[in-house]
Amino acid sequence: MRNVIVLSLLLLNIHHVISAPKGVTASLSAKWSMTPFLLETSEFIGEDGNEKFWQFVDTVKELTVYKQGESVRSYYNLILKKAGQFLTDLQVNLLKFALALRSYSPAVQASQQIASDEPPPEACPAFVSIHGQHSCSTKDIKKLLKAAAGRPKPYLHKNDHTYPGVNKTDVPVVILYAEIGTKKFTSFHKVLSEKAGEGILVYVLRHFVADPKPQKMLLSGYGVELAIKSTEYKAVDDTKVKDSGANAEEDNNDEVQGFVFGKLKKSHPELQEQLVELRKHLLESTNDMVPLKVWEMQDLSFQAAARIMSVPKFDALKLMRDLSQNFPSKARSLTRVAVKPEMRKEIEENQKRLSESIGVHPGDGELFINGLHIDLDIHNPFSILDILRGEARVLEGLHNLGIKGEHQGKLLRLPVNAVDDSYALDIRHPAIMWINDVENDLVYRSWPTGVQELLRATFPGVIRQIRRNLFNLVLFLDPVREESVELVKLAELFYKHKIPLRIGFVFVVNTKDEIDGSSDAGVGFFRLLNYIADEYDLSQALMSIVSMYNKVDAGETLSVDAISAYLKRKFPKANAERILGVESEYDDKRKDGALFYKKSGLGALPLALFNGVPLSPDEMDPDELETIILQRIMDTTTTFQRAVFMGQLTEGSNVVDYLMEQANVVPRMNPLILSTDRKYLDFTAKPVVDDWEDTTMFSYFDSRDKTAVMAKRMKYFTNTDEDGMSAVTVWIAGDFEKVSGRKLLLSALKRVKASPGVRVGVIDNPSGKPSEDNTVLYRAIWASLLTQKNKAAAEFVQKLLREESSQLLQKGTKMKDLLMQGMDRDAFEKKYNTLEVDFIRSQQLFCRDVLKLSPGQQAVISNGRILGPFEEQEEFTVEDFQLLEKITLSGSAENVKAKVKLMGMKAKHASDLVMKVDALLTAAPKGEVRRDFHFVKDSHSVLRLSPRENEVFYDVVAVVDPLTREAQKMSPLLIVLSQVVNVRLQVFMNCRAKLSEMPLKSFYRFVLESDVNFLANDTVSPGPVARFMELPESPLLTLIMITPESWMVQAVRSPHDLDNIHLQEVSGIVTAEYELEHLLLEGHCFDLSTGQPPRGLQFTLGMSRDPLMYDTIVMANLGYFQLKANPGAWILKLRKGRSEEIYQVLTHDGTDSPADAGDVLVVLNSFHSKIIKVRVQKKVEKINEDLLSENSESNGIWDSIASVWSTFEKSITGGGSKKDDGEKEKEDVLNIFSVASGHLYERFLRIMMLSVLRHTKTPVKFWFLKNYLSPSFKETIAHMAEKYGFQYELVQYKWPRWLHQQTEKQRVIWGYKILFLDVLFPLAVDKIIFVDADQIVRADLKELRDFDLEGAPYGYTPFCDSRREMEGYRFWKSGYWASHLGHRKYHISALYVVDLKKFRKIAAGDRLRGQYQALSQDPNSLSNLDQDLPNNMIHQVVIKSLPQEWLWCETWCDDTSKVSAKTIDLCNNPKTKEPKLTAAARIVPEWVEYDNEIKRLLRQQEDTATQKHTPLPSQHQKDDRRDEL
Q1: What's the confidence (pLDDT) of residue 1384?
Q2: Is there a smaller number of Cβ atoms within 10 Å at the N or the C end of the chain?
Q3: Which residues face 1076 on adjacent strands?
């Protein structure tokens, strides 16, 4: 009762004026229709592999029948239930999140678009395309297949779904376009899957919805900001807006100052109206927007943190979201919060630690998931979903393997050594003949010996002469081959010039004993070399070789005669027969070289190793080799310097030993083991039964289950470490009835004997169907493993595998006669005689389905990494096993073992776990380093949420200052993350002290939901929107969409001025509807021959049926280009005309066609950025031509239509017809460019256009920047064009991601005025005139176009000096500008003319962007960006000063000069701050007439629209924009 009285008293104080709640909502829809959830789900499951995709398709093949009877919600739940058969609980949660994000919608839409390009036959719910011919019926398939071979095959994309049939390349490809789950799909699928299974055809499925729902689909994953604008200059339109009458759905659970209105309304329905008023009153009293004093601001960040830490932790994130996203109206209430000294101290201690360990400073915002750094500038919810999915595989794997809690993080953070591609061979081998030794030879005795010498400064490019063997070159040569000649000469050159390089040779010559020097030149050469080395020394021997080679003519090879002739001439006393002949005393070690070469596993001769690392064959060209070796010496020097500096290499170290102990040094090179392309088994499944005796049962398991059963049942030959564990587990699969199989296993067992910590398991893969006869040896092996002690079993099996044993068995010897001493005979015989072969059948199935081996083929598996199948003759020796073990251990097995050891489990379990975890971690894609986080203290400054017990959890650490832009985005992201997955969350309050200004000046919403939302009646809610409900009414707000990098969005519907939202003047809700107009395709293009970007090169993007839909120009900065696109398969081409005549595409990366294909095919099928690289080259005959040369435009390259949109607009507006290239003479057109944002400036813009048209007889074409125009302007411009007879085109460009971003909308617009002039317009436009929207033209702009710029790229008007009373405001007369400009003038950017040909030729755009990039990092520079930048660059990019009468503005010019003014600009007046509209009517008499004329035109248009019942958004809208001075 008491509450009611209090409530009534409160309500008495409020006047009864009922008004609708005010606010702003923004939504963003896709350009394409809504895609079915079922298809998106299939794409999600398809990411886990083709096998799963088709299993899912089979499960849901007629699911759409349920769509009719069920509500949308229960159909959605049914889809999730079906998907749940293939996904874990965690993955189902991720699927819900993906469906809420519509993350896979572009993939479905891409297929839909590919189908529409086919095009689909009329009225066909599903159809097949067989090599270009279509049919809607299964009956025609046979007929179409017959003739298919004669037609070219269709191009298949990387992510096409191909039915897993027999892999044949010579059969026709059938593409089915259908909607999964429909009856029509099922009938096609049945026929095609059978035929694909028989290997008659390749069956590919692409999604195709015959009649998509027209319903638009709302997207999420973006931010919306309402920034508070400065109202120093009043620049708001006064035209009234007709209201849309939209009302907000109220958030009923909201609590304002302690009143929970949802509950109050339920309990007091009779007081509804008064409660609405009370809520509004309370809100207005809290939305205290009075500016704070500086001393009140200082501690806001700490006060916000204190407030967040003081509430129950489950509410803390929501409070952080509320404070950061509505900060301007919450600031006042925060000033009253007290901050505890303990909290302040703790935050400072943690900050010190953070800045030392990972370089995070106070105020920075960072997010880490499982230690991976998530940079929120780069990542968006779509990429975070991908990261969550990738992590889920590893986390669930570890969880399934029984690793919980703290151990999970420790194993995840283990450094998995990335696959090294520069392995080195150990060069400490006696077979290498070293001809010099830098450390000991007298020649080098004057050199210093200390390794510290490496740190002494020298001139760049100087090779330090230090008496240590830091650089070693080993050459493997066959002395008879002609390539050897040049290489030996090169070695002598290095030696002579005293390069600090130790040189060694390995001569690979004939190893047969009976061969001698009189018949084989190589052997003769070797013996002669040994003789000279014995008599003299090795360096003398090298000289001799060189002089001997000098006698050999080019193209000839060394002959036996040449050798004996040389011997007689140089050493007349020597006995040639004794040296070269059969009885030679100089033949020792002849075989060593060939043996070392064979064992090393290196490729073809000649070969060179630099410090053990082999040089690639193309580096072995003697002309190149010298440079390469010197370059290697330089590069290696820096590595040595680091080692000396870090104390790893000291004066006492043997340098060669130090080099050979590095992780990348291996005992031999085996490309199979060292290759970077690696496949792994997945051990993480938990099968229900682990039975392999029942082969039928086993055959139904999927790959993961089969692997898990094998791992569970495997028995091992072990040689354990002292701790009883094995870090390396090798499985040998093969047929042991074959010699090669026995050899392989024998090598493995020999290695086990030599190496503790390795164990070997054996899998049988018989050549035929397993029977008693073809599994004799394997059953004996298995029986011995089951019944004998480890040592006895190993010795017995080694004996069995020797060839003599198998010969005895073949001759009829019984197995029991081969048993050895110390074996338990009875147990063995009993087991051996009763073994069934069923389990061997299961093993053979495992080899076939999982290892992909044919019967009888061999493979080796090391900790889950599959090597094989081996070729018939391929040997895998004991040395190979040694190498494999080293590679496996250094990868991560050693680290994993150390961690598993701490878990304290039985040895067999532990060894299994090491194998499984190692396979899991090394198979996971290598990301960046995972960071480990420990906060010094965490009781007052770290918000902690614990994960649910016994479930997979993600470890999330956020470091954030609660009052920053990062917090605005991170807090809603963390809330959604914690709803989607199980998280262990730590949020550290990284506060800044002593704030001197308001930390946030905007309201913000991040649009993101964790699951699909349904309305009360079980229909899908229209989708997520950004809602701003409790906004203060006094400030002027501007709406900014903050979307992922590659999205191009535009406003499509809103009657209000989104640039100037003033809630005091609005009743109800301001709604803004945006559309994702394009997904960008970005790229970088370089000319292969010069390495430079080909400036001015043009690309076009289109589809096979419409090849020119969008186009672009390559800029010199990074060779960057961007093209507008949407989901689908696109063809990128060089534009017809000069681009195609001069250049050709050579290779491309990141695309979806083979790198050397002429047609560049790009598939856009996700919301992620797509960035490609294209390399082009000039055609031979055009090598001297320049794209931008003077005569380049003679054969009109671009028709003046640069985008499909403008074509479409013109086709309905008569805005100019499209002409053929041939017909296109240089038209006499005035090209006028302008930008505007907000209704006031659009009103000015129309008046400016009218004034231009009134003063010229030349045809005019207006170019507007589309990015910021309001929907109503885009609607009305067409009617204006019709009425006044001008052409127009809307151009747009997305600010490139690599160019420093501006956050303030006004500055972004200024950037567009100047930074992209070279790429916004087609090359055919020679000159463009920029005219500010708020200008009134009084002369013919043709004069300005034809004005002689005297070689300058652009002309600007200088600021007037004539109005004396404004002298104090002329900032360019003093300070920086006065000294920078010297005698030049400061120019105004309201009007300028650009000679685009000259501008492009001197790369002015690239220079301006470069300078902008350098200056814009400093927030205080370029305060008037569009004006300061060209003035700052005046020395590099010359400005031609235009005559003063071209721009008159009252602020700076005196009244007398107004008479001769050719244009009048409504500059802001810093002295009087007069509003724009008042100034316009006062200064320019004709302005009011123009204004009324346009108003009449718009009214007529509105009336006709109303008559046609097509409501148009109301026209006049508002704006505020700081203007030039």
Answers
A1: 86
A2: N
A3: 30, 1049
Residue 1268 is classified by DSSP as: G
What is the C-alpha separation between 340 and 257, in angstroms, rounded? 24
The tokens describing 241, both together, are: 């807006």
By three-state DSSP, how is residue 1039 classified?
strand
171 contact partners, CB below 8 Å, separation of at least 6: 199, 200, 201, 202
Distance CA 609, CA 629 (A): 10
* Per-residue pLDDT band at 1433 (split at 50, 70, 90): confident
- Whole-Å CA distances, 1347 to 574, 1168, 1356, 1440: 94, 47, 12, 10
State yes or no: pLDDT of 117 exceeds 80: yes
- pLDDT tens for each residue of 306-340: 999 999 988 999 999 999 999 998 888 888 889 99
pLDDT tens for each residue of 551-605: 777 667 778 888 888 888 888 888 778 788 777 777 777 888 888 888 888 888 8
With contact defined as beta carbons under 8 Å apart, do 855 and 843 qualify?
no
Q: What is the mean pLDDT of residues 519-542?
A: 82
Three-state SS at 818? helix
Query: What would the mean pLDDT of 203-216 be, rounded to a whole number?
Result: 88
In the chain, the amino acid numbered 702 is D
pLDDT bracket for residue 1192 (50, 70, 90)? very low
Question: No. of H helices and E strands in the chain?
Answer: 52, 49
DSSP letters spanning 595-659: HHHHHHT--SSSEEEETTEEPPGGGG-HHHHHHHHHHHHHHHHHHHHHHHHTTSS-TTS-HHHHH
Residue 906 DSSP code: -
φ/ψ bin of 1288: left (φ > 0), alpha (ψ from -120 to 50), beta (otherwise): beta
* Residue whose C-alpha is closest to residue 1295's, from 1318, 1322, 1315: 1315
Query: Residues 6 or more apart from 910 whose CB is under 8 A from it?
Result: 724, 725, 900, 901, 903
How far apart, in whole angstroms, are the C-alpha atoms of residue 396 and residue 384? 18
Measure the CA–CA gap between 1357 and 800, rounded to whole angstroms.
98
The rounded radius of gyration (Å) of the Cα atoms in the chain is 39
pLDDT, the chain, mean: 84
Long-range pairs, 1456-1464, Cβ under 8 A, ≥24: 1456/1362, 1457/1360, 1457/1362, 1461/1338, 1462/1337, 1462/1338, 1462/1339, 1462/1343, 1462/1344, 1463/1331, 1463/1335, 1463/1336, 1463/1337, 1463/1338, 1463/1339, 1463/1391, 1464/1335, 1464/1336, 1464/1338
DSSP letters, 230-265, are: P-SS-----PPPPP----PPP-TT-EETTEEHHHHH
Report whether pLDDT(259) > 80: no
492: three-class secondary structure by DSSP: helix
Interatomic CA distance for residues 1071 and 28, integer angstroms: 11
| Alpha helices in 287-361, H assignment, sequence order | 294-297, 300-310, 313-325, 327-334, 341-357
Q: In the 8-state DSSP scheme, what is residue 36?
A: P
Inter-axis angle of helices 1204-1213 and 1271-1284, nearest 10: 50
Q: Is 1134 helix (H, G, I), strand (E, B) or coil?
A: strand
Cβ atoms of residues 204 and 175 within 8 Å: yes
Cis peptide before 947 (omega within 30 of 0): no
The letter for the amino acid at 752 is V
Share of the chain above pLDDT 70, in %: 92
pLDDT tens digits, one per residue of 1276-1302: 898 899 889 999 999 888 888 888 888
Burial of 658 (0-12, 13-18, 19+ CB in 10 A): middle
Using a 10 angstrom Cβ sphere, with 0-12 exposed, 13-18 middle and 19 or more buried, the burial of residue 779 is buried
State yes or no: pLDDT of 1202 exceeds 50. no
User: Cα–Cα distance between 116 and 111 in angstroms, integer?
Assistant: 9
Specify the pLDDT at position 761. Answer: 94
* Termini Cα distance of the chain: 64
d(CA 655, CA 647): 13
